[in-house]
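Q: What structure does this chain adopt?
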Amino acid sequence: MLAGLLSLMGRRGGFAVLFLLALGASLRAQPPTDYVVGAQDVLTITVWNQTDLSGKFAVEADGTFTFPLIGRVKAGGLTLRDVELELKKRLADGFFRSPQVSVAIEQYRSQRIFVVGEVRQPGTYPLTGDMTLIEALARAGSTTENASGEALVVRQSQGSTSEKPLLPDETPGAEVTRVDIKELQSGSLARNVVLRDGDTIFLPRAEAVYVFGQVKNPGAYPIQKDTTVLQALSLAGGVTDHGSTARVKIIRLVSGQEIEIRAKLNDIVRPNDTLMVPERFF
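A:
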């Protein structure tokens, strides 16, 4: 059933697929007990059969929060499971026999990722649970029409985080993972990177070709990998009634020299190519 939905939505719009996959990932995700709590996270703590002790608790800047009966509790740097065990231990010390406690994340505020480049809503986003690339792109409102066909996930070494976005050319030693957006749009999850605190997702601008002559909308147009001459002409609105598709020329810069190529409609264009569509003889 999922494969059928992906196929249908893939025909109607690639990023509709991303939203479906992100929704599915969100529905599958459960609060991970190995999540490391940080300052400003908000915890939901439930003590079974003790409604007065259950509620939401914000972790303060020093990594602690105040809990009824037992006072200050350290949470920063501990996993959710560790916090549960600490609360059970302290509540069992003179208050309850075998207390049952569960701890979950209500709001993730201590960890974040950056989404920059050609997305509709670039910015800083909280890292929630096992957040993936698909979910991050969906939160950022999908890519713009000028985006290239890949996403770059830029990550510093283990244990390092950044207060600002990391760009591939400006971060020596960073690990850069390149992901083909079309693979995500087609429903393949093999390259759906699980994100880490401090990751930057960079969507570079697509390179362009220039289309002039007998086309309806001459100008520069962003291209994806393996864009053909016919597709480039379509981006420019197609050939006018006076244009000839049989004599299209590509002007290309090779080793600093301009060369002219007689183009076929299924030829692959290159970034910065100029396509010239001549007028028909008759």
